[in-house]
Amino acid sequence: MFHPRKYLFRFLFLFSIAVILYATLYRETGQGDIQLQLFWTIKRAWREHSGNHWYLILGNIALFMPFGFFFTIILRKPDWKKAAIIGFVFSSVIEVTQVLTDRGLGELDDVLHNTWGSLMGYCAAVILGYLFGRHSNRYKGKVKGASLFFGITILAFAILIFYNQPDWNVRLRR
């Protein structure tokens, strides 16, 4: 039986892959270097009140959210571990490709943020699938954990970003 939604979601999943590849690999030249220090972008964003670094962190997360979202929807049995693993592997392949082709800086932080984005997409798919999906029982046992993960992530980033603004940040003098 022909199910147009199924093909639409598969197309959108492939489209999200194409967008990610275009955004990460289609550029003139990059550094072709590697940065293996974990959390360096968050540390720099925090220390320097760098809106640019927060933009890069949130951009990497947002870039992989549709990937995790549509991957979760096309699975018969959604699983956060599968969403995390596929996001991690795809992101790792991109980072290695950037280094080998001199298309960008291969960063461990990017792999972390992209995997986080894939998990956020998973959470959004579970929550929306439970609320509006035809097969809401597929998401029934997963919606509490997904909602908690999604909510804590949003709250944590809101606190980090707003507290890091110079007007909001209270520094202790030593």
UniProtKB/TrEMBL annotation:
PANTHER family: MEMBRANE PROTEIN (PTHR36834:SF2), MEMBRANE PROTEIN-RELATED (PTHR36834)
Protein name in the entry: VanZ-like domain-containing protein
Domain named VanZ-like: residues: 13-128
Signal peptide as annotated in the record: none
Entry keywords, A to Z: Membrane, Transmembrane, Transmembrane helix
Family matches, as Pfam families: VanZ
Keyword Transmembrane included in the entry's annotation: yes
Membrane-crossing segments per the record: 7-26, 54-76, 83-101, 113-133, 145-163
The organism's place on the tree of life at top rank: Bacteria
